[in-house]
């Protein structure tokens, strides 16, 4: 176990999950003997007891989720819930990202799991109101907190969690723990201090197609773009593409430290199958994917142009932001919060590109 800002973070991999079951089995055998001692043992928080109670939902002890998810059906089998506008906040309770699900006659495929354990559980409840069929798979578009902190409910429901191999490197670094510590502050009522970070059950090294309940699914690796690991899910018969944060509609894209050059190079591959409906990671579903792709693309292009010029002319980043015309994007939700971070990230990216360019 590693510690950051004295906040413990554990990453639960399938292997560690199995190992964690062993103490639980032992405990089950010894329980009749230990039961009278339980009140004495509880404050010690031994690994044994943590394992024994690991079956409890992670949202235990977290505040109730009161935001409403309201799934929207976009095709015969495909649904999504639309996160509230803007960045993660106490007001939206961390519900600012979308998640999708596809109900086939043999089970359910879920795309992304929302941004807190409670939101993941709420999403599962919404699915359960529409079908009692098993949740077969959860495809995680990318490992940003607002898309995977709700995984635990689906793991407990028996789903297989899939993400791209590049997530493995991300989980091995300090990024996930730093982000968790931040969310435990900014979303304190809903992100418990002992929340585990769930690793995928299986990493994808290449694109994967599968059939379930008569529907054909394609999982495609589009990254590096918004992140190194971006996956999209195409539901062929429904003509629906779930694309995570590869495309933003109705708000300013979050660029952060993304490789915007690779992102622009990848963006056209999203529409090769001409999906009729595109469900982005944030914002409303698009029935005109080509037009909506333009917002993300144009924002990236302008950001790179302004920051690239600034790097070349030694103009400080703040000055460059102020000196450019952003009126096309300024009225969009999340502009205030995201744009500055995007500008700084892109400035650094353009510096790296300038240094790497042949002279
Ligand atoms: Zn993201």
Name its key features.
359 residues, Metallo-beta-lactamase, Chain A, globular, binds zinc ion
Rounded to the nearest angstrom, the distance between the terminal CA atoms is: 46 Å
Assess the beta-strand content as a share of residues.
Answer: 15-25%
Number of alpha- plus pi-helical segments: 13
Domain tally: 3
Write down the CATH topology of the largest domain: Metallo-beta-lactamase, Chain A
Distinct ligands, ions and cofactors found in the model: zinc ion
Bulk shape: globular
Overall mean pLDDT score? 86
Low-confidence stretches: 1-8, 33-58
Please give the CATH architecture of the largest domain. Answer: 4-Layer Sandwich
User: Which CATH class of the largest domain is shown?
Assistant: Alpha Beta
Helix percentage range: 25-40%
Order of helices and strands: EEEHHHEEEEHEHHEHHEEEEEEHEHHHH
Instruction: Determine the CATH superfamily of the largest domain.
Output: Ribonuclease Z/Hydroxyacylglutathione hydrolase-like
Structural features, described:
It is a single chain. The longest helix has 24 residues, at 289-312. Helices cover 38% and strands 18% of the residues. α9 links the parallel β15 and β16 (277-280). It is built from 13 helices and 16 strands. The model is unreliable at 1-8 and 33-58 (pLDDT under 50). It has 359 residues and is an alpha/beta fold. The site of zinc ion has 5 residues, from loops.
Summarize the structure.
With 359 residues, this protein is α/β, with parallel strands linked by helices. 38% of the residues lie in helices and 18% in strands. The termini are far apart.
């Amino acid at each position: 176990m590693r510690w950051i800002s004295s906040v413990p973070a554990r990453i639960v991999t399938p292997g560690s999950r199995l190992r964690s079951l062993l103490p639980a089995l032992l405990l089950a055998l010894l329980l009749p003997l230990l039961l009278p001692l339980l009140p004495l043992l509880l404050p010690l928080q031994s690994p044994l007891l943590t394992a024994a109670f690991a079956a409890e939902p992670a949202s235990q002890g977290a505040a109730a989720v009161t935001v409403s998810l309201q799934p929207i059906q976009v095709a015969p089998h495909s649904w999504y819930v639309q996160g509230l506008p803007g960045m993660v906040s106490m007001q939206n309770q961390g519900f600012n990202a979308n998640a999708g699900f596809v109900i086939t006659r043999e089970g359910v495929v879920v795309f992304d799991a929302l941004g807190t354990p409670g939101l993941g559980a709420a999403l599962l409840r919404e699915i359960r109101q529409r079908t009692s069929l098993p949740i077969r798979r959860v495809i995680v578009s990318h490992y940003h907190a607002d898309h995977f902190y709700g995984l635990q409910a689906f793991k407990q429901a028996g789903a297989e969690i899939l993400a791209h191999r590049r997530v493995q490197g991300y989980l091995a670094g300090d990024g996930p723990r730093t982000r968790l510590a931040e969310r435990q502050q900014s979303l304190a009522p809903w992100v418990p201090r002992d929340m585990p970070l769930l690793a995928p059950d299986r990493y994808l090294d290449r694109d994967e197609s599968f059939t379930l309940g008569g529907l054909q699914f394609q999982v495609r690796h589009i990254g590096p773009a918004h992140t190194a690991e971006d996956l999209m899910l195409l539901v062929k018969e429904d003509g629906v593409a779930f694309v995570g944060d590869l495309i933003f509609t109705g708000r300013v894209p979050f660029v952060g430290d993304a490789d915007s050059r690779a992102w622009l190079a990848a963006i056209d591959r999203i529409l090769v199958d001409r999906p009729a409906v595109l469900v982005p990671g944030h914002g409303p579903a698009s029935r005109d994917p080509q037009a909506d792709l333009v917002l993300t693309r144009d924002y990236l292009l302008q950001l790179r142009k302004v920051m690239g010029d600034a790097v070349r002319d030694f103009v400080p980043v703040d000055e460059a932001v102020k000196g450019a015309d952003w009126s096309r994007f300024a009225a969009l939700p999340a502009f205030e919060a995201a744009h500055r971070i995007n500008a700084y990230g892109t400035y650094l990216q353009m510096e790296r590109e300038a240094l790497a360019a042949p002279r």
